[in-house]
Amino acid sequence: MRSLFCLAISVLLTAVPLPAAAQQDLDAADWLRLAAKAMCDRNDLTGIEAQLEIPGSWLLEESRFPPEGAARRIMVRLVLPGAHELVLERRQVNGRLRQFRLSFFEQTGSTLEPSLQAMLDGSCQFQSARKIRSEGEAWRYLDQLEGDLETLRWTETLQAPWPSGTDPGGVSVGLVDSGLAYDLPLFRDQLARDETGNPLGHDYWDMDPWPYDGDTSRGPFFPIRHGTAVASVLMREAPAVALVPYRYPRPDLNRMADLVERAAQDGVRILAMPLGSRNAADWAAFVKVLEHHDILAIVSAGNDGHDIDRTPVYPAAFDLENILTVTSSDAFGKLAPGSNWGRESVDIMLPAENVKVTDFRGAAGVASGSSYAVPLLAALAARILEKDPDLTALELKSQILKRASQSPFERNGVVANGWIPDPLAD
Question: How confident is the model at residue 412 (pLDDT cuts 50, 70, 90)?
Fold first, then answer.
């Protein structure tokens, strides 16, 4: 079946005896080297060819993105002896190879886990590789390797156990994002904890107790680290808050309802949410639960350069009293390039361009966009609650909006309530 974006061909095969060569005890690196030698220099990658050339493999799927065109990605997915999987991806322009990627997924018990990915250049030379490894129950690492698939360049943390500590007290703010590098010194002593000293929070993506920073929607070997940078702004602007990190449930957004229920149990008063999607159905369960809790959800308008009154982004565009939608302006009060707006759907603007952040490695940098307006506004909300902890969510929202004024550069009303030039001016 052809579509605008993708052509997927699935082939069902009959089990056949594996060749003797396929029964060798090959490790992940061996399989990648074998596949590169057999398939990288082919002018056009096909699944049947890959099955014939790679010993013992069975073709699961062949995909082309787009089906036609000068620039294409061709992907072949094979199952190997031991139920491991191998993915071959050819990136080409006008039929000429630009990059060849090989990914090995290891079958461990009943689980298929990403193990090793290698990148080859247009001359079929190995340039680099990424290896995922685990130590114990909670530790997981991403090793960046040289082209020999062995020599280590550097290591990143993918998951870590909670650090020890005590509850800091203060207003509890939940952050719903790609997770948090909670082992950094910036956050270790600011994590909200239960009566036994265990940090509050949860990973609703992997459904485990450790919401470490990493959005793996573009692939397990290239995680997007967003939540730590956002949280660093919140901690700088409101250092007395008790932080509760939640890794958002990208695989199933229906879990957002459970996340809100848990946040309420965790005592969260403010839910910072620099995320969204264009499908209202994704958020139906979330809205149904949120409206029954005394929690103020501060959500980003998004960064598509759209009027979300006409092209909605959710949950920002929902008309719910305890949602406060924010977008980014420059320092002079003009809507930032690329930031979404909406005279009805977007409540307020804050200057969130070139904001100082700390990334998941602990390195300093700058970031821009409505995602970073969220922690600025959440920090303001937390500071207001510190002074008046008896405020309800709706009263808190009202207190925030009273601080807004008309921007001198946006007289046409791109947002409902204007902007706050300096949210730190308490």
Answer: confident
Query: CB count, 10 Å around CB of 343?
Result: 12
- Note the pTM of the prediction, 2 decimals: 0.91
Number of Cβ within a 10 Å radius of residue 185: 9
**Tokens (6 digits) for 162:** 């909670």
Report CA-CA distances (Å) from 8 to 50, 75, 97.
Answer: 16, 9, 21
DSSP lists the bridge partners of residue 341 as: 307
**How long a stretch of residues is the chain?**
426
Residue 315: Cβ within 10 Å count: 23
Predicted confidence band at 24 (pLDDT cuts at 50, 70, 90)? low
Count structural domains, the chain.
2
Q: Does residue 143 sit in the same domain as residue 186?
A: no
Q: Within a 10 A sphere around the Cβ of 416, how many other Cβ atoms?
A: 15
Please classify residue 151 by burial: count the beta carbons closer than 10 Å to its beta carbon, then call 0-12 exposed, 13-18 middle and 19+ buried.
Answer: exposed
Token pair belonging to 285: 């369960």
- Across 66-201, the runs of DSSP E, i.e. the strands, are 71-79, 85-93, 96-108, 111-120, 126-135, 139-146, 152-159, 172-177
- Cα(7)–Cα(72) distance, rounded to whole angstroms? 11
Q: Is 12 within a domain?
A: yes
Whole-number Cα distances in Å, 163 to 156, 167, 182: 17, 12, 8
Q: What is the mean pLDDT of residues 129-145?
A: 95
In a shared domain, residues 71 and 209 = no
**Domain assignment of residue 419, yes or no:** no
Looking at the structure, do residues 84 and 213 belong to the same domain, yes or no? no
CATH number, residue 376: 3.40.50.200
Residue partners of 46: CB distance under 8 A and separation at least 6: 62, 76
Range of the domain at 73: 7-159
85 and 180 assigned to the same domain: no
Alpha carbon distance 124, 133 (integer Å): 26
Residue 5 sits at φ, ψ, to 5 deg, of -110, -25
- Considering the domain architecture, whether residues 303 and 176 belong to the same structural domain is answered as yes
DSSP bridge pairs for 277:
314
